[in-house]
Design a protein that fits this description.
The protein is α/β, with parallel strands linked by helices. About 15% of the residues lie in helices and about 45% in strands. Strand 1 (about 25-30) and strand 2 form a beta hairpin.
Length: about 350
């Protein structure tokens, strides 16, 4: 990490990137990979372009979970790729500490096109923190990130993404996840700062006894537009899915989408979307979708959008808090999501990211 400048490290810290307590680190600035380092055995970490040269078998994963012609952004990355990371947990290996990957933009008007591949082999356990950010004085740029995730039989993978971009950035992540029999995939996405537009709609395929959980925490300042959601296909018997989102608008726009498709006997899924409006000009739109294709599928959803109730503020003020303190306490409780299946170290990182963003706001 000494190879990375102090200024960049300071910004990277705000998206969960640390010097210690990590099994490995991948650090890319603009179009250049500055660092790949590993501290634990049983896992591989390198640039995805280098991995494709090294492993001919990687071709069978390349553009399979995300289609190359999905949209204009996938086509651009396929045509002009700027690295990205390759992470693979070997069969049966349980990596105790999280791996971290930082995708950083240090100059204005940079267009960063990355293609990431993650493979959790059979029986493995892997936790990843991805911090995506721009420099303190970097206002505009584009980040197009393709991520293909493969969770093999009885493997567990948690993937925590924390974003912090400049206010004129356009961000277009495209993610596909394939979860084999008995596998578990946990996705956590946190973005608490302004960005011009951010659009993402990851899609996951759960096979027999597989589990997918998507957790999203968003704060949209004025002039920010988020169009974010998740879609899970419950392909296999006894597959499970949960999509939970919390969004706060402080003048920006949040479109929260969620879709569950039950295609197998005893498949179960739940979708929960809650939005809080803290400004007169903010907009919050919840779009839940449930689609059952067999009679044995069980799908549920709940959605709620509104403002902080005045009686809640009054109750806390009557106990000695100021109005701002009362509002802050309610907001903090609203953003808190209990995430099952994460190690304590990773739970702390998510909590810390939310707390740092609250201080900044």
């Amino acid at each position: 990490m000494r190879e990375v400048s102090k200024e960049i490290l300071e910004q990277a810290k705000s998206v969960g990137i640390e010097r210690r307590k990590r099994a490995g680190t991948f650090f890319q600035v603009n179009h250049e990979v500055l660092l790949t380092a590993l501290k634990e055995e049983g896992v591989e970490l390198t640039s995805s372009t280098e991995a494709l040269k090294k492993y001919p078998w990687l071709e069978k994963y390349w553009w399979k979970a995300v289609k190359q012609d999905k949209d204009e952004y996938t086509r651009e990355v396929a045509k002009d790729q700027h690295h990205g990371y390759f992470i693979r947990a070997l069969p049966g290996r349980k990596i105790s500490l999280p791996l971290q990957a930082c995708l950083f933009i240090s100059k204005n008007k940079v267009r960063q096109n990355v293609h990431n591949i993650i493979i959790a082999e059979e029986g493995s356990e892997l936790h990843i923190i991805t911090g995506c950010a721009s420099g303190k004085d970097v206002i505009s740029g584009m980040h197009f990130g393709i991520t293909e995730v493969y969770v093999k039989k009885n493997a567990l993978l948690s993937f925590t993404m924390i974003h912090r971009w400049g206010e004129e950035f356009e961000v277009r992540p495209r993610t596909g996840v394939i979860i084999e029999e008995g596998g578990t995939y946990i996705s956590n996405f946190v973005c608490m700062h302004g960005v011009k537009t951010l659009e993402m709609y990851p899609q996951a395929y759960c096979y027999k006894n597989a589990v997918a959980r998507f957790n999203t925490v968003l704060v949209a300042p004025q002039n920010t537009s988020f169009d974010i959601g998740s879609k899970v296909y419950l392909e296999g018997e006894n597959s499970r899915a949960e999509i939970i989102s919390r969004g706060i608008t402080k003048g920006g726009e949040i479109i929260a989408r969620g879709c569950l498709v039950g295609k197998a006997e005893n498949a179960k899924g739940h979708l929960e979307c809650r939005g809080l409006i803290l400004s007169e000009v903010g907009r919050m739109l919840a779009i839940p979708e449930l689609e059952a294709r067999v009679k044995g599928a069980e799908l549920t959803h709940e959605a709620a959008v509104g403002k902080i109730a005045e009686e809640e503020i009054s109750y806390l003020m009557a106990r000695g808090l100021t109005k701002d303190e009362a509002t802050s306490m309610i907001v903090r409780g609203f953003l808190n999501i209990e995430i099952e299946g994460l190690p304590e170290e990773l739970k702390k990182e998510v909590k810390k990211a939310i707390e740092m963003a609250e201080e900044g706001n």
